[in-house]
Amino acid sequence: MGKLYSKHSYLELPHSLYARLEKSQTTQYAIRYLNDAVVNDFNILLQEDDMMIINGNHDDLFAMAYAGHQYGHFTMLGDGRAMMLGELHHQNQRYDVHVKGSGPTPFSRRGDGYATMLSSLKEYLMSEALYQLGVPTTRPFAVLDTNQTVYRDIPQDGSMLIRIGKSHIRVGTVEYARALQEPTILQSLLDYAIDRLYPEIKNSNKLYLALFDQVVKRQAELVAKWQSLGFVHGVLNTDNVLLSGETIDYGPCAFLDEYDPSLTFSSIDRNGRYSYQKQPYITSWNLSKLAAAMVTLIDPDESNAIDLLNQSLAEFEMLYTQYYYEHMAKKLGLVPMQESDKKLIDELLELMQRNKVDYTNTFYQLTCNDYDSLPFSMVEWTLFHDKWIKREPKHDIMKQVNPVVIPRNHLVLQAIEQAAFDDNDELFRTLIDVYKDPYNYDRDVNPKFQEPNPNKERFVTYCGT
Ligand code: AMP
Ligand code: MG
């Protein structure tokens, strides 16, 4: 059974890593959506004590301090509109219970500390969908209606999103601890991260290097999953990268419709820094910032420390490439993968890009042996198909990794706008349900949930804070 505690273990760390906050008044807010799947999975009873914690009606609330490289530039940040409500213990794992949109904190800078209903609904829908697709992620617990107006371009309804994650320690949290220039604080933070996330490495003789290796591996796994599903996070600043390897912060994220690796959806990412194809590269860049923040703890000799970290960082590309091709080989039913399969995968992707086909639906059609609706020319298709069939693709494996349905950007936008602006929840609730079982080939799914955006103009997403 999941048990909630108001006193979070993070409060045992040095005080400069967080700011305590006043008792909150979330009690007065109505729950707009409660994620029954999370309540069930974590077996939370929602008794009076639990509600007190979830409502922030206690004295152990805090905002985490962190920094981050945003679009390449180092900035001091912190939870400017979020706070920790408590800790959830479930099956020997501790989870943060965190709320976003809860009002000003000492880290709010010029922001108001609030969140719009639109942004909370997007995170709720997308993060639960990613979870159901098998991607490590924070999970949405509830959306609250604050009955407050939040001023953005236009006045909007305010909301709070409560989410659960293995830990909200970001690469930027480590950068912050390093910037304090007090080695003991940095060390306590990393010891805590190990205890919390990677207890299995506790006896390693190069403890902090082992931690770095773990983060490299988890991030390589995470980005390989994103790439294989065509997911674009959109704002991979180091403050949005977790040491746990879970996806966090669903602002301008989107899924590819057409397979074009250069695509960026975020309105503010003008140079395509966080485009689909750059996600592995930028994750490695982000990890280099983590390495730089950890250097003093790796080895007393700085140049040794740098060498060791560089070797570990070099593993990222190797691991990422391995995981990525393993996923892609499965998408084509090629298990066990052979070295030559990589060329076949690349060939198909080239064909897909040249013909501007839908990424998800192409793999779905291949899985269903529905070749007729693929728009490839007979010649190019035959060339690929002959080689592929020789490898005897396993369709049962393909079904496990090629989703029948993914969140389509235009539908997600329509659903959250209707729910936030018109008080019409119908599509939102339908999508929550449709995205629940994305690999189920026996379920009847209305084709309109599978179709890409009929509007061929490039889809643009907004951070929507
Ligand atoms: P994000 O873009 O949501 O990852 O946020 C980046 C930083 O800006 C974090 O430190 C947030 O806490 C802060 N932030 C974003 N929106 C607001 C807001 N409305 N009020 C205060 N801080 C904010
Ligand atoms: Mg963030």
Question: Can you walk me through this structure?
Answer:
The protein is of the alpha+beta class. The chain has a domain at 3-168. Helix content is 41%, strand content 15%. The chain has helices at 36-41, 48-54, 117-132, 171-179, 183-197, 207-229, 279-298, 302-331, 341-354, 359-367, 378-390, 395-401, 409-421, 426-434, and strands at 3-5, 18-20, 30-34, 62-64, 67-70, 73-76, 82-90, 93-100, 115-116, 139-151, 155-165, 231-232, 254-255. Strands 1, 3, 7, 8, 9, 10 and 11 form a seven-stranded antiparallel sheet that branches. It has a two-stranded antiparallel ribbon with strand order 2-4. A two-stranded antiparallel sheet has the order 5-6. β10 (139-151) and β11 form a beta hairpin. The chain is globular and about 65 Å long. The site of adenosine monophosphate has 16 residues, from loops.
Q: How are the elements arranged and paired?
A:
Blueprint: E1 3-5, E2 18-20, E3 30-34, H1 36-41, H2 48-54, E4 62-64, E5 67-70, E6 73-76, E7 82-90, E8 93-100, E9 115-116, H3 117-132, E10 139-151, E11 155-165, H4 171-179, H5 183-197, H6 207-229, E12 231-232, E13 254-255, H7 279-298, H8 302-331, H9 341-354, H10 359-367, H11 378-390, H12 395-401, H13 409-421, H14 426-434
Helix pairs in contact: 3-13, 4-7, 6-7, 6-8, 7-8, 9-11, 13-14
Bound molecules: adenosine monophosphate (AMP) and magnesium ion.
Keywords: ATP-binding, Magnesium, Manganese, Metal-binding, Nucleotide-binding, Nucleotidyltransferase, Transferase
Active site: 239
GO molecular function, one term: manganese ion binding
